[in-house]
Specification:
Number of helices: 11
Strand content: 25-35%
Radius of gyration: 20 Å
Structural class: alpha/beta
Low-confidence stretches: none
Distance between the termini: 11 Å
Helix content: 25-40%
Mean pLDDT: 97
Order of helices and strands: EEEHEEEEHEEEHHEHEHEHEHEHEHEHE
Bound molecules: zinc ion
Shape: globular
Largest sheet: 7 strands, mixed
Number of strands: 18
């Protein structure tokens, strides 16, 4: 079968199209095999290509955490999907037996694994995974949008709905509008009825965010983000800040954060170590919230949003499997607005 793989850690030059990989078999009665229609890229893929601490590369390793496709084979224990069903995939795989899984918090599972990070990924003609990770969706959702949906939307949903608990009328600041998680966060916040402030260094990206409902646009190259926010809110500040940039934006995020504000993060693309003045933390009664991926109930919730057409991810560009490396180069440059997709079959 064909797949987009790496055999060594490094840069995007390590990406190669393979035509000679064996078709994967079901490993147990709970598994399904999916014939992949399209797969989408995430920033996580760039970290995987670069090499992650504690993750040993099994070459050739298939990239990709997001996909949609058609069920091709089902194990005997799988009842909720059948051959021919159109599905999206929950990229997070948990053991189902530990205290966190039993509590419904799968991303905290000590044996949590992610497609394309710890186990072979989705940028292949076929992928095998636990049947419970496959969720049926209507054929009316395009394969590009379906593939673009799971990881970013799941991550944003947990951040905004479960962790920060955004309420109607609240002010939310989102850094780096254009990325998949940031755009999903914007859509989720607008659906809740929040007022959303978005930041980018690109005016075209800010204009496109405005077309999606963003209320206030801040070009970080032209204005002091925290200063403008304090001026425009009469010093009140934000109720919620979404900061996945880390080192480069943390101090601005805290300056923009109002009393009882919640800062929620799922990553730090500019660097991992940040500084927080503990006096301001307790005096303002802030909550600093970490979040990663999402649990099974949250995946079901976002799938229902997709089925109802309430959340549909913007797609930036679509590449063929043969041009897969170009897709990663586009993501690496950070020029995209929305998800970068690879069409598989
Ligand atoms: Zn577990």
């Amino acid at each position: 079968m064909r797949a987009l793989t790496i055999s060594k850690n490094g840069g995007t030059e390590q990406i190669e199209v393979r035509n000679d990989l064996p078709m994967p078999d079901l490993r147990g009665p709970g598994d399904v095999r999916v014939r992949v229609s399209a797969a989408a890229l995430n920033h996580l893929d760039l970290f995987v290509i670069g090499g992650l601490p504690g993750v040993k590369l099994a070459a050739p390793f298939i990239l990709g955490s997001d996909a949609c496709g058609v069920i091709d084979a089902v194990g005997d224990d799988v009842k909720h999907v059948t051959v021919g069903d159109y599905v999206i995939l929950n990229p997070g795989i948990s053991d189902g037996t530990c205290e966190y899984c039993l509590d419904g918090e799968q991303p905290l599972c000590p044996r949590y694994r992610i497609l394309g990070e710890h186990v072979p990924g989705t940028m292949a003609e076929y992928v095998v995974l636990p049947g419970k990770n496959a969720h049926t969706i209507p054929r009316s959702v395009s394969s590009e949008q379906a593939a673009a949906f799971p990881l970013a939307t799941l991550t944003a949903w947990r951040m905004l709905v479960s962790r920060a608990r955004v309420k109607p009328g609240e002010d939310v600041l989102i850094w780096g509008i254009g990325g998949g998680v940031a755009l999903a966060a914007l859509q989720i916040c607008k659906n809740i009825g929040a007022r959303v402030w978005v930041v980018s260094s690109s005016d075209p990206k800010l204009e496109r965010a405005a077309a999606m409902g963003a209320d206030e646009l801040l070009n970080r190259n032209l204005v002091d983000v925290a200063k403008v926010i304090r001026e425009k809110t009469a010093k009140r500040g934000m109720d919620v800040v979404v900061d996945n940039v880390g080192q480069a934006t943390w101090s601005q995020s805290l300056l923009a954060l109002g009393r009882r504000g919640r800062l929620v993060t799922c990553g730090g693309t500019s660097g991992p170590t940040v500084e927080t003045d503990v006096r301001r933390l307790f005096w303002n009664q802030w909550s600093l919230l970490g979040s990663t991926m999402g649990n099974d109930a949250e995946f079901e919730a976002i799938t229902n949003e997709l089925r109802a057409g309430r959340l549909l991810p913007p797609v930036d560009s679509v590449f063929s499997l043969d041009d897969g490396r170009l897709a990663f180069e586009r993501l690496e440059k950070g020029e995209q607005f929305g998800k970068v997709v690879v069409r598989i079959s």
